[in-house]
Fold:
Amino acid sequence: MNVLTIAGSDPSSGAGIQGDIKTFSALGAYGFSAITALTSQNSSKFFMSEPVSPDAVRSQIRSVLLDFEVSAIKIGMVYDKKTIKTIYDELKNIRIPIVLDPVFQSTTGGVLLQADAYEDFKKLLLPLVYVITPNVPESEKITGMKVRSQSDARKAALKINSMGAKNVVIKGGHMRGDGVTDLLLAGKKFYTFSQKRLSRDNHGGGCIFSAALCVSIAKGTSVPESVRLAQSISFESIKNASAIGKGIAIARQKNTDTVEEELAGAIGQFVSINGIHKYIPEVQTNFVYAKPNPKSIFDILGLEGRIVKAGSSVMVAGTLKYGGSRHVASAVLEVAKRFPSTRSAVNIRYGNTTIKKATAERFQILRYDRTLEPRSNKNAEGKTVSWGIKTAIENIKNSPDMIYHTGDLGKEPMILLFGKTPRDVLIKLAKIR
Ligand code: PXL
Structure:
């Protein structure tokens, strides 16, 4: 999934374009960028800034939108009137959700929006916006109101909404109190999200919030859920800030794991393998990948749906979801309990030749016999796979590469191929085809 940031360059890489790209990557999104302005700053001082020409801003945005699929756009530093007008002209007719982070001043005091550009900022950009994410001083600038309390914040949110922004988040970091409460106005409803207050200044935390929000919106997650996620990601990154320069600490994205990215990539490769249709069983195929140390199938990403065969073509029907797979996920869950590094699996059609090739490759192959399953277990919905896998791995010392069964009355035989990662599973699959 791809997103675009339209923002200023920050050579300290904590905020702006560079910060956004890091956040996008950490969350498994591909980030495109269009640079509106150059700033020169470090952790102590903001030295200067200058705009990129309108032609160049326009051309950058077009070069991205003409070619790539973009699921959401983030706008950060827009610097001046000409840049605002250019962005407005390029985005006014597109249907991609826009997250606007109104940044007016850098942490070290640099001017990110010129004084004569506020009117155009409000008039042209706010009506394009799906979610806007001001902090308290920014919300005051936009509305002309004083925002000192939660009730002021609600009034400000309503006003910003009336100015055109569909959903409004007012980040509460600058308000007094032990905790920090971010306020969301979505539709006609208010939501609040509270978090402990971290007593450290940082550079980049706000950019991380809006960039994470942008990725979450791009994935189709609801606005309230996306705000909750953005708050948690920016909180962790502020906690993780490091004083790598002589001045203010720079917020650092925690590396989130890339379960979704890896699995989606592997499924894409799987379906394009030449002749793979011969390996799709009657019940079709699922391909799963667990978070580290999965506790239930809801820690395991799989297709809600299947990889299906139609003649000799194979395609993905459904989307990736935690808990999306029951059978293959239950198998991985059982194996991961004994062998935590095994986190991925795919089910393929049973065939003698496949077993022989796997034997020749010296795979660790196990089998279980479904006909030996205790009747009480058979009657319990969905327990067969767990029982079978548990039985198969009971006495082994090394993690299995393959576990199969040869069926039961009305049950198709099946092979499960395991690996540490989806890529590992594909490598094993290549050896036995
Ligand atoms: O964090 C706001 C911000 C956004 N964009 C750029 C910046 C800053 C803060 O310094 O420099 C380019």
Summary: The first helix runs from residue 16 to 26. The chain is about 35% helix and 25% strand. The domain at 264-432 is CATH 3.40.225.10 (L-fuculose-1-phosphate Aldolase).
